Amino acid sequence: MAARGGLSWRWSQFGLGALYAAPALGVAPNAPAAALALSIGVLPAAAMGLPPRRRGRVVIPLFGAVVALGLVFGATIALVPVVAVVALGGISVLAAGLAAHRRAGRLTLTLFLPMMGIGLSFPLSTTTMMLATAILCGSIFAWAVGLFWPEQPEKPRVAATVPKGRALWGYGVLLGAAASTAAAIGFTAGLEHVGWATGTVLLVMRPVRGQLVRRSVGRAGSVLVGALAATGLAVLSPNGVVIGVAIALAVGALCATHESRWYVAPAFTTFLVLTFLVTTSTVSASDRLLERTAETLLGVAIALFFGAFIPTLLAMRRPGKATAAE
Question: Residue 185, Cβ neighbours under 10 Å: how many?
């Protein structure tokens, strides 16, 4: 493993990611758009990393199913914006309250909710179902590949710093308010991809202030890098072979860096998603760059407001009590 600061790189994991991308690489010369959809399908598996024991790798299709379900649910409620805004708030509070005691609550909070928010960008359609199917099939394929991958020693688990009781419920209220605000702004402003700001909120907000700030900075920087890379590729007007190689490199790099302390995964996911959108629409790459970057910054600003600024104000009113955000 090569590592510097908060960035880690495992060449063996890069090879695993390249295997994940093999179907997309094979399809790309004749059908670049289909290849990009297939690459999006393996992103959840690449981002989560391969569990060290084969028996534990069954969680890969499980997580893929949760991600696909969240995407479809978000796309469905996006058809009625008022329902979407209310549902985001309610599910956020409920998931946060259950996260300390139930695995279902943690899965909802970390996987289902962010994909539900991202799903607002794709009101239910054939494309939405195609992406959800690609994610489910891609996760199953990644699990099958993982069964042949050598086992590794299990690492000791580090318990996450999570508030308990009323503090966790309070975090859920703030998370729900932030996600609902992002969605309401997106729907009111008529943004094409309402889920980009909303998904950012749900992906970067954490009950611990330091984690929130690090993820906010990391996501903003990573998305910008990924969007610039996608724009640069589009300027070259690449053929299917070049797109296939780019897919393999991006998925491989996502796998290779998944243990990094820096939040770099959005660079690779943004690159693939924007390349897919540029390939399948008439909107220019530069417009997609500006749209993606601006809406990510909007989501980061909302997350910081609800996740850091408001808790600070509340703490100032109750100086004798510690806050969960500290």
Answer: 18
- 9-47: b (≥16 Cβ within 10 Å) or e: ebeebbebbbbbbbbbbebbeeebebbbbbbbbbbbbbb
Q: Are 137 and 41 in contact (CB under 8 A)?
A: yes
11 phi and psi angles, rounded to 5 deg: -65, -35
Mean pLDDT of 101-115: 88
Alpha-carbon gap, residue 116 to 235, rounded angstroms:
32
DSSP 149: S
Contact 41, 142 (CB under 8 A): no
Q: What is the pLDDT of residues 268-289, one digit of tens each?
A: 999 999 999 999 988 999 999 9
Q: What tens digit of pLDDT does each residue of 211-222 get?
A: 999 999 999 999
Tell which wins on pLDDT, 128 or 99. 128
Where would I find the beta strands (DSSP E) of 159-276?
A: none
Q: What one-character-per-residue DSSP string does 17-68 give?
A: HHHHTHHHHHHTTT-HHHHHHHHHHTHHHHHH---SSGGGGGHHHHHHHHHH
Would you call 80 helix, strand, or coil by DSSP?
Answer: coil
Q: Which of 1-5, 38-42, 242-246 has the lowest mean pLDDT?
A: 1-5
Report phi then psi at 22, rounded to 5: -55, -45
Distance CA 206, CA 307 (A): 7
Q: What is the pLDDT of residue 106?
A: 85
- Please enumerate in sequence order all residues whose Cβ is within 8 A of that of 57, keeping only pairs 6 or more positions apart, or say none: 50, 51, 143, 146, 147
